Fold this sequence. Notes:
The protein is mainly α. It has one domain (about 45-260). The protein has helices at about 1-10, 20-65, 75-80, 90-110, 125-140, 150-170, 185-200, 210-235, 255-260. Helix 3 packs across helix 5 (about 125-140).
Amino acid sequence: MVLSGSSLNTLGFRSTSDLPTLTVAIIEGIVGPGLVALLISFLPTIYGAFSRWETAVAKLHLRATDSEGVPSPSSLLGRHHVIDSLDAMASMWADWEDWFVEVEETHTSFPILVFFRSPVPDRSWIGSAGMALDSASLSCSVLDVPRDLRAMLMIRTGTMSLQRICDFFGFEYDSDPAPTDPISITRAEFDAVVEDFRALGMPLAADMDQAWADYAGWRVNYDVPLRSLATFVEAPEIPWATDRPIEISRPRLVRGRSAAR
């Protein structure tokens, strides 16, 4: 033990004349600096990934926070309508599609990142993911505007990203739910958002029953993965995203499950 400690930490205060043991000690001496080099290289990589996706998180929260300081997808869409920039959200959908792709890669390569906290207490990566997905889902279902292909692609990309992160941690979900399966958002909550949109003079779909069915059909795909990850990391509460915990199984590292599906 003393010889291994001396070799691994490259202190060199103990040696041996036995050739096999000396060979092992030399190997341990090489491993010690190698571990230090790995730490020096990995820590900036992890922080760099955190810094990149945190920038998008901060921007989304600033746009989605209402006068009471509560962020929500309805506030995000409402603010863009007030400043007459609903059409400009197309670029945001494209940016968040890229964000989801990067988050899937980083959060499965460096799983410790799922626990990283934002500098602002009420922000989180998973809450922002939920806001982005719900904003796009509401836009595609409730608003009487041409459906944006980039919004729909972002919903699909975000859903698959959250599912694959859930696969990594071993959380169960239905990978192919029916559009009529239950979701955690109630019709009353949906109608309340519609009334807020109507008060702002936003263009609304004529058939709200169909709009609800369309929204539920989008939401059902990411509802359980979103809530599972939010519960797992104990994310701060954000309406519709992280304010409704779900019972999850004990997480276990499972690589390759998405391929097995």
